[in-house]
Design brief:
Layout: H1 2-5, H2 9-24, H3 30-46, H4 50-57, H5 61-71, H6 75-91, H7 101-114, H8 119-138
Keywords: Kinase, Transferase
GO molecular function: kinase activity
Protein name: ULK4 kinase
């Protein structure tokens, strides 16, 4: 986390580009799903740092997370993406105007509505919705 917060802008952009390209890959094999999950676990660990969370939520990563939430076929990936979104919302210190938070809330509530009988899934999605709503209300 210290390395990330001390990165120069050019290195930060390269780092973001690598993350986004890994998340955005459309490969369907098990290795790709495992590497996505591992990347999401990593994002969960770094998202608890305020400076990094603020930089990540304001970057091109947030729309890609929303896209992954919509397009992923694996519920493990969807649950972990929701966790990353919730952690980013919880730990960010400021919310930029161009961050598509309302789109994330809308998608999360649609997923909850479509899968309202799946209590395990709701346990993954509801905290992210709550953190996003709290972030919106506190801005």
């Amino acid at each position: 986390a210290e390395e990330l917060s001390s990165m120069k802008d050019m290195d930060w952009n390269d780092f973001l580009q690598q993350i986004c390209s890994l998340l955005d890959s459309t490969e369907k094999n098990t290795g790709a799903a495992c590497s996505k999950l591992n990347l999401l676990y990593y994002l969960c660990t770094v998202a608890v740092h305020k400076e990094i969370a603020s930089r990540l939520i304001s970057s091109q990563l947030f729309p890609i997370l929303i896209q992954q939430l919509r397009a992923a076929t694996s519920w493990d990936i969807r649950a972990k993406v929701a966790r990353v979104i919730g952690l980013l919302a919880l730990h960010t210190s400021e919310l930029g105007e161009n961050v598509p938070v309302s789109e994330a809330v809308k998608l999360l509530t649609e997923l909850i509505r479509e899968n309202f009988r799946n209590s395990k899934l709701k346990q993954c999605l509801l905290p992210a919705v709550g953190e996003l709503l709290y972030l919106i209300a506190s801005e």
